Amino acid sequence: MVPVGPELISPRSARVAAARRLAKRNFRGKERLFLAEGPQAVREAAAHQGGGLVELFATVEAAERYADIVGEARAVGARVHLAAEDVIADISTTVTPQGLVGVCRFLDTPFEDILAARPKLVAVLAHVRDPGNAGTVLRCADAAGAEAVVLTDASVDLYNPKAVRASVGSLFHLPVAVGVPVEEAIERLKGAGVRILAADGAGDHDLDEELDEGTMGGPTAWVFGNEAWGLPEETRALADAVVRVPIHGRAESLNLATAAAVCLYASARAQRARGGCRSVTQS
Question: Contacts from 270-279 at CB under 8 Å and sequence distance 24+?
Answer without folding.
Answer: 270/211, 270/214, 270/216, 270/217, 271/120, 271/121, 271/216, 271/217, 271/218, 271/220, 273/217, 275/214, 275/217, 276/217, 276/218, 277/120, 277/217, 277/218, 277/219, 278/120
